[in-house]
# Entry
Amino acid sequence: MIILGISAYYHDSACCLIKNGEIISAIQEERLTRKKHDASFPIKSINLCLKEAKISHSEIDYVVFYDKPFLKFERLLETYFAFAPKGFKSFLSSMPIWLKEKLFQKKLIIKELKNAFGKKTVWNNKLLFTEHHLSHAASAFFSSPYDKAAILTMDGVGEWTTTSVAIGHNNKINILKEINFPHSLGLLYSAFTFFTGFKINSGEYKLMGLAPYGKPIYAQIIKDKLVNIKEDGSFKLNMNYFDYCTGTTMTNNKFNKLFDGPPRRPESKLTIREMNIAASIQYVIEEIIIKIVKSIKKETQLDSLCLAGGVALNCVANGKLIKEKIFKNIWIQPASGDAGGSLGAALATYYIMLNNRRVVTKNEDNMKGSYLGPSFKNNQIEKTLSNYKAKFLKLNKSEIIDNVAKDLVKGKAIGWMQGKMEFGPRALGARSIIADPRSPKMQKLLNLKVKFRESFRPFAPSILRENLKEWFEIDQDSPYMLLVANVINEKIIKTNDEDKKLIGIDKLNITRSEIPSVTHVDYSARIQTVHRETNPMYYDLISKFNNLTGCPMVINTSFNIRGEPIVCTPEDALKCFMGTDLDILVIENFYLKKNEQKNLSFTNYKELYELD
# Structure
């Protein structure tokens, strides 16, 4: 039984192919088209998934779309009618797109498939649709190591649902309750993302990273004016302050008055106001999530909880959940956003609709480390490098590890591409930029000279799992970089009186631990635990670095620059390498030094990318 799951047309298009319940391949379209958050039909990803699985399109039993367009259209109409005549201009601008394309997505999807694979295959009886939040729930529960668990999904909005609570048992999911649009944690957080001058659907990470620089002085205003929070975590937004139902912006003038002025202009200087706003909304979101999870525990009395939906990518809130110890076990889908809906749609069809038996391996999820994308053979890589006249060494794995570990010690910034590409928003040691976390200058250097992004953005440590407790206040697997924990006291460097007086971005340059480049201003870090079973090459590299330095971790950030998707192919990696101040590039067995690349056929490296 072969099932293809698809998410498309809104943001982060992707596809996933499963065979008899096993996840074979999953790819986001942006990685192939090189368009950040590409929403187009994921035909390139579909073709590559089929190639990875070594099957023909004619062998697909079902194609499943991750939500139901008619229900979404119903919500759109009811929302406009509820707020009429306000928002009439927005209504007029959106209707042609819906009536031409989105409302008739079944026809559109079949047309795309026929264009790609010819008209002989009959797709009508193969094409199915699942509900958006069921897709999220299925992506979490059916990928998890639990045969029974509570499931919490939180995002902006699907068809109607913005938050759902369910119970998964064996091969079934039973939805217990939902919160519906316009009341949404995801849209609440996005409203503040917009207000602080960042892009919606991509800037939420920035807002979360900015929060520790401020104080939650607006938290009570948010709770008094914007969101009514019940003891069980259910909530209701005061729509008098938001314009996303009918307008072209997220917030309005009444919202502005609450927060001392208009929204920050994108790319303008960040002030302490934005930092305090970020701290405040993060505080409120955490409070709501913790209340919801406590209520779920009380109602279900289960030991395990699964999380999915875009809000589940808030790793700071996830870290707080772990510290609260509400559930014995928590598992978070690494592709919790809309891309992961493609996976959930396929799994929901296989288990729920087709009633297939589910086999769970204790303490082992089904995501294969989230290494579900394409990989490249040495002959392909060598051909690409030679075509661009790159100078390289071809080394065995032991030589690669030795060289790179020594380069890390010397303070080099390294592009690292090994094995199958990750599925989801995090680079996990397959398409990563790595460096020495002990360097006090590396965070600023990587942000400004390699990533071309805001200097306040934190970096994550990839740490050997067995050494986790020796460095951080956590003892739980975090293979997908979805948990935040504090550095232990023994590794913290006390700040002097002058440093304690610093506020805002001025805090950035304080050396606050033995691993300053991965220690955020609140002494926290977004942790990835590295396991030999899922990524032996990365594990061996960090082990070698540990042998040389006594530090069992490296900086890990995604192999891309601001405004670009994470690299996929050897060509992508080479372009990013040459367009940045990276020192070393490693692609499988190939080792390149920047200072030796005198004859590359790229013309202007720095103009390879357009910054957003």
